[in-house]
Amino acid sequence: MARPLLWEVAYAPGTTATVALLAAIFILIRSRNLQYSDVGLSYERFTQQRELYRVVSSQLSHIELLHLLFNVSSTWSLRTAEADGLHQYLLTSLILMLLSAAVYLAMLHILIHYTQQERYRQMNVVGYSCVVFGWMTILSARGVAKFSVLGMAQLPMGLAPFGSLLLTSVIFPRASFLGHLSGILVGYTIAAGLFDWLSAFWLISLAAWGIAMDAWPRLISRELTLPGVVMLAAAAPLDVETGLVDHIEITSDL
């Protein structure tokens, strides 16, 4: 017997919030006429231009309506993932998002630098598919029985990750096979318990340290600026013997 929609919303608040967020961002993208290059993740923009925010912005963004509908429908079909609680659901989704992007970029690095596939350097990808495929993999390892594809077809959960991967390749010819595959691979590592130690505190701490380690050399070399802080390299020589900087000027706009 089907349960009322309001009951489902109350049962899966994290899934409901995710679906609402994806829809809201899609409307914003359409209203501003943004394109793949504006919100997507590419190897060049991440490694050369250091646009780290694209790891998140790309996965929450959709340019095509059908792509959004597929991911929203899949996310809603996977709402049983909240059985362990809202906190664990959001934490696992964030881990899937960050690690899937890392695996995807590592794959691109190998293709670009070791097989000379330069076409991957500027390719932009968007969509929540990495997280969706990761959750499919986790739930298949837990023994969840069925997965609904767009509310029309039922797949055994054990076949859902690779079955959906094949289906998306047919429906969306431009879909990133590597992006979806990275979500599946990370999903298997999470299902195996390799990241059970990673709490929200450690995840945020590691991400913050990673951003800081990336930003500091560029701040020193003036490739990156911070509001209210001026690094005067020429006027602030480093004393070799004492290791002290003579002068750092800090400004503030009131």
From TrEMBL:
InterPro entries noted in UniProt: Peptidase_S54_rhomboid_dom, Rhomboid-like_sf
UniProt keyword annotations, A-Z: Hydrolase, Membrane, Protease, Transmembrane, Transmembrane helix
GO molecular function: serine-type endopeptidase activity
Keyword presence, Repressor: no
Transmembrane region(s): 12-31, 90-113, 125-145, 151-172, 184-212
PANTHER family: RHOMBOID PROTEIN 2, RHOMBOID-RELATED PROTEIN
Membrane topology field: Multi-pass membrane protein
Domain Peptidase S54 rhomboid residue range list: 50-195
UniProt-listed Pfam families: Rhomboid (PF01694)
Family to which the UniProt record says this protein belongs: Belongs to the peptidase S54 family.
Protein name: Peptidase S54 rhomboid domain-containing protein
Localisation per UniProt entry: Membrane
